Amino acid sequence: MPYRCTIQNFTYVFNSLKSLLAKASPYRSGDALAGICAVDYKERVAAQMALADVPLQTFLNEAVIPYEEDEVTRLIIDEHNAAAFEHINSFTVGELRDWLLSDNANMQTLTLIADALTPEMVAAVSKLMRNQDLILVAQKCEVVTQFRNTIGFKGRLSTRLQPNHPTDDAKGIAASMIDGLLNANGDAVIGINPATDNPATVQRLLHLIDEFIHQFNIPTQSCVLTHVTTTLQLIKQHAPVDLVFQSIGGTEKTNKSFGINLSMLQEAREAALSLQRGTVGNNHVMYFETGQGSALSANAHNGADQQTIEARAYAVAKKFKPFLVNSVVGFIGPEYLYDGKQIIRAALEDHFCGKLLGLPMGVDICYTNHAEADQDDMDNLLTLLGVAGCNFIMGIPGADDIMLNYQSTSFHDALYARKVLNKKPAPEFEAWLIQNGLTDKAGNLLPVNASHLLLKGMKE
Amino acid sequence: MIVKKEHITVHEWQSLKAFTAARIALGRTGVAIPLKEVLNFKMAHAFARDAVHTLLDEEKLIHDLQVFQLPVFNLQSKAIDRNEYLQRPDWGRILNEQSFIEIQQAKGNYDIAFVIADGLSATAINKHAVPILQLIIPQLQQQLKIAPLIIAQQARVGIGDEIGYLINTKLIVVLIGERPGLSSFDSMGAYITYAPTIGLTDESRNCISNIRPEGLTYDMAAQKMIYLIQQSLQLKLSGVELKDESSTDNIKHPESLNFQDAVE
């Protein structure tokens, strides 16, 4: 069905909901690369005006990617909560935007409609919102998950400690891990990207973190970010797996390019649940990573814009009740998100869309060296996401990942965000920091001397 | 108010630096990284940024390549500058019109061709391309028919597919500047593709990465390349089915790097 908008006697026509969404999307290089973005500023705003008038009901009747062709679409439609939708079924996309910003939308009502919204509705409304709108609405949401600690409370900001090493050297990883813990980082997860997918190496790294966590009784969880099939195989061999990692995308074809499908994720979740390794919670065992542009990069975007597809990936995540979801926003490179402005916009969209759908969203605030961005852009984004109530960010030594060769946020950056925004780490982790003399009750770092318990194992 | 100079807290775990090149034990002032370390980081980023925006030193490259006594072609992709190159990877994989016409003169029936492409670090190519070729070409010249040497600017790995197809070579080797990291702004990659033709993807190639004196040394890289070239020509294939048995490290792309490598 075509959508129209007439401006000064000129009628813009958009042939499908998919095309309307693409043309209404704020400019980014990936949509230009795909050849689907608006041709000029006027067409973009005309598309946004037309989109504002589309009833939410339309999204249930016109799929962006056909139901018959794509298991992600089937998941979205089949899981849609029709009863919850009755609260908002009279809204257009534009009315939804105005309602979200109103005082009627609060933590309770937003939780109530999380299952009434489809990813495409959420993507659509985000395209009509300014950055401050995305921040304000996201800040109203609270998504809390539990494993060995509790992540996501308002007033808290957690970090994934990312102690990567180019050769997976145990001591090299341990050194970065200790540095992070001494800097009050690592409450969301201690998560290693291994340099190799080799199962024996992954197993060795799992044991390394597990022994460390138990030796020092740290209320946190571990993850080695390898393919879900490798983790599943290691669970069967009784490896100490806390969280199961997988990169996911918003179309069946993207997921196929990652070597996965929905039933594989289901099997992995069930295997991890059976281990019962959580202490304060045992229902959240998955760690997913996503990022705008991954579908186009795999030539699996079906002509849809990258932000809409990203929101669809959150439907995949939601199905498996994740502990953490991380949009690795600037990692993909400038052909998808060209500069600091585009990276910042995309990150705020991802965080907003995820939160509105009920996901424990974190963001890897990052860029590569061929993107037009630097650490100042990351400072801006970090501050914005902190205000928006982002559940967690990365903590990497000096913001420089020496294995993946990109820049993210440092341990110090997390301390900055906590300080200026008056945030604390996860409550159980905060108590551990105080107990071990690393911070005082106000959250200030305390001096640590060379005889500290955490430093004892690393003498030679 | 008394201003003391003891505001920087030195981290007491400096000894951990022996175990990793990661930026650990940086110290702090308040919660901030001390300036010295901030500037060190900025300088590393400056090297990487400049490497991305450096141009190939055409004159020197053309001059230095004369030593091989082969014709040299200097070509350009459809991307006219860095700005276009960074946003249109598809244009970096095809020749512009003029280069397409020029390359017709190089048509032949070759065993092997070498493309020298700037990729994301012309600095890497300016430094390492000729020394590597000096270790390889003399060893092959006896037995193989080598195509003219081809310089390709604003180019990605895939440009070798079009060039290789147009000039008619069994095998093509693309030397290309890799995406700079903070600790490696001048890393070169070598991609080997058998029976190049338009539209091939990663799994049809073999890649040797991180070629630079501090990474994979010239000698080791040349050894690996010659091994793969010989095996590829003998088995008439390249890519996932051609294993690099010469190597001891089997490091693959990490799982979280699910996105295509930037130069490809």
Describe this structure in words.
The complex is a heterodimer of chains A (460) and B (264). Chain A has helices at residues 17-24, 29-33, 41-52, 56-61, 71-79, 82-85, 93-101, 107-113, 119-127, 131-140, 170-182, 199-215, 228-236, 252-257, 262-275, 294-297, 306-319, 340-356, 375-388, 411-421, 427-435, and strands spanning 3-7, 10-14, 145-146, 150-151, 158-161, 189-192, 222-224, 244-247, 286-290, 324-327, 361-363, 392-395, 400-401, 406-407. By secondary structure, chain A is an alpha/beta fold. Chain A has two domains: 3-140, Annexin V, domain 1 (Orthogonal Bundle), CATH 1.10.220; 145-435, Alpha-Beta Barrel (TIM Barrel), CATH 3.20.20. In chain A, helix 9 (119-127) packs across helix 18 (340-356). The mean pLDDT of chain A is 97. Chain B is an alpha/beta fold and 264 residues long. Chain B contains seven helices and eight strands. In chain B, the strands form two sheets. A six-stranded mixed β-sheet of chain B has the order 3-5-4-6-7-8, with helices on both faces. In chain B, helix 5 (122-140) links the parallel strand 4 and strand 5 (149-153). In chain B, helix 5 crosses helix 7. The longest helix of chain B is centred in the first third of the chain and has 19 residues, at 35-53. The radius of gyration of chain B is 21 Å and the shape is elongated. The N and C termini of chain B lie far apart (59 Å). At the A-B interface, helix 2, helix 11, strand 14 and helix 20 of A face helix 1 of B.
Number of structurally distinct domains of chain A: 2
Discrete helix count of chain A: 21
| Parts with pLDDT < 50 across at least 5 consecutive residues of chain A | none
Number of helices in the DSSP assignment of chain B: 7
pLDDT under 50 segments of chain B (min length 5)?
Answer: 247-262
Give a quick rundown of the structure.
The complex is a heterodimer of chains A (460) and B (264). Chain A is α/β, with parallel strands linked by helices.
